[in-house]
Amino acid sequence: MLSASVIAGLNHLLGQADWARRRLREHEGAVAEVALGGTVLRLGIGADGYFQAAPDDTAPSVTISLPPAAVARLPDGVGAVMAEVKISGQADLADTLSFVFRHLRWDGEADLARMLGPIIGRRVHLTASRLAHALPDAGTRLVANASEYLAHEGQLLVPRAALSAHAERLRQVRDTMSRLDKRIKRLATPTSARA
Which pTM does this prediction carry? Predict the structure, then answer.
């Protein structure tokens, strides 16, 4: 079931990318085995350049292994995930799959246009894109404003400059105390012991 859903999702993306299907058609009949932790997905490549379920008795042409830690690097981008991938098998097929997976993108606007119509689909897509760019920026500004308020207005946090100045004063007091301690020890020692 998971295999069918993944293949359907990949084929949907391939349906929006003629260039990717052209590259995959060169490897018609090949089987790629993708292992993520304990889950194994077998992808056969059809004559039309789309993926299809591959029979279990067919030897894979290429094996792609993703350690579970690779998924955690997904927020860092596809490149970060691809750096964790281990590939073995036919080099040309591995290179093609790597290129396709790295450059395959979802055309959300086309799907929204098909569901909502071209004008509304375009507007929804633009709004979603603006929100996706604005939210991280707004979050950063919110954190900066909150910390500034807590430090200056609410006086619940110590401003960085005041903390640095306080640390410098503490270093000076520590040094002075150390010199004073040495002086007291020297004065407390009898004069015959000092000579």
Answer: 0.54
Sign of the alpha-carbon torsion through 88, 93, 95, 97 = negative
Question: DSSP string covering 110-153, please?
Answer: HHHHHHH-HHHHHHHHHHHHHHHHHHHHHHHHHHHHHHHIIIII
Question: How many structural domains does the chain have?
Answer: 3
* DSSP character at residue 18: H
Host domain of residue 11: 2-103
- Return d(Cα 42, Cα 55) in angstroms, integer: 8
Whole-angstrom Cα distance, residue 175 to residue 172? 5
Does residue 195 sit within a domain?
no
Query: What digits encode the pLDDT tens for the residues 37-81?
Result: 778 888 888 889 888 888 888 888 888 888 777 767 766 666 677
Dist CA 72 CA 68 (whole Å) = 7
130 and 177 within one domain? no
Cβ atoms of residues 41 and 3 within 8 Å: yes
For residue 113, CA distances in Å to 9, 84, 110, 127 come to 18, 36, 5, 14
Give residue 105's Cα distance to chain centre.
16
